[in-house]
Design goal:
- By secondary structure, the protein is α+β, with helices and mostly antiparallel strands.
- Helix content is 46%, strand content 21%.
- The chain is built from twelve helices and 18 strands.
- The strands form four sheets. Strands 2, 4, 5, 8 and 9 form a five-stranded mixed β-sheet that branches. Strands 10-11-12-16-15 form a five-stranded antiparallel β-sheet. Strands 1-3-7-6 form a four-stranded antiparallel β-sheet.
- The chain starts with a helix and ends with a strand.
Length: 544
């Protein structure tokens, strides 16, 4: 008993310490466009500010503001959000000329905070532009959230493996106490990790360190989508705790076991619903893939841990000869699903093959895949022993190999905890363009309207986002009846090519544009207002 306890303690210690340093959470929604454009100089103040992100966002109450040249707030009411676009209504101040500051703090669809600011001017820039009073860290929770993610994964491993083996393959004469204690420890770890995630989410939402949070800050998380998901996870954990004793003791019928399985699936679904999958190109597919991925991981690693800690030593060889082949089949199935769903989810989150090497997300994936490949090689050796019928006679060899698998997968879990807090490869290009301000943003004026457009990023050969907004000369949003946008490269003899335009809002045109060769590209906007009024404006976009 002392030997088994020492083995279990050692394995839990190895699994419980992330071997890769956790990094602070990163914002995953990327600022794509603003109207007025950053640093623009307008003839008169606009009636609203429009901010467009790469994915849907939710504004943090009281943390979206527009300050006038005198430092006073000029926004009226709360901002409105429709999809990826946030609109901030403005009033015209008594002294409208000068520089305006827009600052914002929002929560992206995958629960990560996004904070930033930009300026524009009316008439002429101010000598002393307004400034934001607090320049707080966008992610003040720091490493709390990724550490909580890691603890939650470990909790799943401790719950699922012992429960599954106790309900199906446990020898009659072996004590179930260790399995029960481990499963309850896993449930407690899931609760603690969920509570830590709640606190970290509150800190990131309000932009305050954990030690400065108030009860109201913590309660506010409950009104968010992430708070609802975390609350559901806690409720599901409570139901699982009520169903668990009979199942682990081997006294539960099929109905109770099926109920616990359904509750487990519901609990697993709360992880992707508070992360990258909800903002992926195919949310239902991503959510389902992550649920299967987590289930497969928990079955495989939890089962290995249970075998090493409780069953391999002290169980009769004839009994092991029946348990190990059954477990080997389950593990093979779990690993197969783990690989298939992992590859599929990686493809969705990377977006393009090149992101595997030129983004932090891709490089973390490569590290995780390399470690997992080594673990699978060890697992394949164990499977050969099982198929030959010699594994039951060599429990020490099986235990040592399983220990290697568990230690290596502890690193894999740590990489996963960091990975889910890293901007996915599909948004890395937009993130880099925003950070480097690589793009073109201009204001074009006619007697009929003012058009503000931006292209981000201006990248050769890759897709670029084009956003254009039309206003009256007085700054009011002006609905457009028809957009015609074309690209041409006169110096290379490239004739105008019409670009398909979508209209997210009446005065907003959006398109995806590509520049196949470098040069000074000419972009032409023909905007029709009403039945007869129409005007054309032209700008040059340098592409290198």
């Amino acid at each position: 008993m002392r030997t088994r306890s020492a083995v279990l303690g050692l394995l839990l210690a190895l699994l419980g310490v992330p071997l890769v340093p956790a990094t602070p959470a990163s914002a995953h929604a990327v600022l794509l466009a603003t109207t007025p454009v950053r640093d623009a100089v307008l003839g008169s103040p606009p009636s609203e500010v429009v901010v467009t992100f790469s994915e849907p966002v939710s504004p943090v109450p009281g943390r979206v503001q527009v300050l006038g040249p005198d430092g006073r707030r000029v926004h009226t009411g709360a901002p409105s959000v429709r999809g990826t676009t946030m609109r901030i209504p403005l009033r015209v101040p008594e002294r409208p000329l000068g520089t305006y500051l827009v600052s914002y703090r929002v929560i992206s669809a995958d629960s990560h905070p996004v904070a930033g600011s930009f300026t524009y001017s009316a008439g002429a820039p101010s000598v002393s532009p307004p400034r934001v009073d607090d320049e707080a860290d966008p992610q003040p929770a720091g490493a709390l959230v990724p550490v909580a993610k890691y603890a939650g994964y470990l909790g799943l491993v401790l719950v699922v493996g012992p429960t599954l083996l106790a309900a199906t393959l446990w020898p009659r004469r072996r004590s179930r106490r260790g399995a029960a204690v481990t499963a309850y420890a896993g449930l407690a770890l899931v609760v603690a990790a969920t509570a830590a995630t709640w606190v970290g989410q509150a800190a990131d939402t309000v932009g305050a360190p954990v030690g400065e949070l108030t009860g109201a800050d913590l309660a506010a998380v409950g009104d968010s989508d992430v708070g609802v998901v975390l609350a559901v996870r806690l409720a599901v954990t409570a139901v699982a705790a009520a169903l668990l004793p009979a199942v682990v003791a081997g006294r539960a019928g099929r109905g109770r076991r099926a109920s616990l399985a359904l509750v487990g699936v519901a609990g697993l679904a709360t992880w992707p619903l508070a992360g990258h999958p909800v903002a992926s190109p195919l949310p239902p597919v991503s959510v389902a893939a992550v649920v299967v991925h987590l289930a497969a991981m928990s079955v495989w690693l939890g089962g290995l841990l249970t075998l090493v800690a409780f069953l391999l030593r002290g169980t009769h060889q004839r009994v092991l000869a029946r348990i190990l082949p059954a477990w080997s089949r389950w593990a093979t199935l779990a690993v197969g699903w783990l690989v298939v769903t992992g590859v599929g989810q990686a493809a969705l989150e990377l977006g393009r093959p090149g992101a595997l090497l030129d983004t932090g997300y891709g490089r973390l994936l490569l590290g995780k895949a390399a470690l997992l490949t080594a673990v699978l090689a060890v697992a394949a050796g164990q499977r050969r022993l099982v198929r030959r019928g010699t594994a039951a006679a060599r429990p020490g060899v099986v235990a040592r190999a399983a220990g290697v698998e568990l230690i290596a997968t502890a690193v894999v879990l740590a990489l996963t905890a960091v990975l889910v807090q890293t901007p996915p490869g599909r948004t890395a290009g937009a993130e880099a363009a925003r950070a480097a301000r690589e793009g073109v943003a201009q204001t074009l004026t006619t007697g009929l309207y003012t058009l503000q457009f931006d292209v981000y990023p201006v990248t050769l050969g890759a897709p670029n986002s084009l956003h254009a907004y039309v206003y009256t000369p007085g700054g009011e949003a002006l609905p457009v009846a028809e957009w015609t946008v074309s690209l041409a490269l006169p110096e290379a003899g490239v004739e105008p090519v019409t670009v398909p335009v979508t209209t997210p809002e009446p005065n907003h045109g959006s398109a995806e544009v590509r520049f196949p060769v470098a040069g000074q590209w000419r972009i032409r906007f023909t905007v029709r207002i009403g039945e007869l009024d129409q005007a054309t404006v032209t700008a040059m976009v340098p592409v290198r």
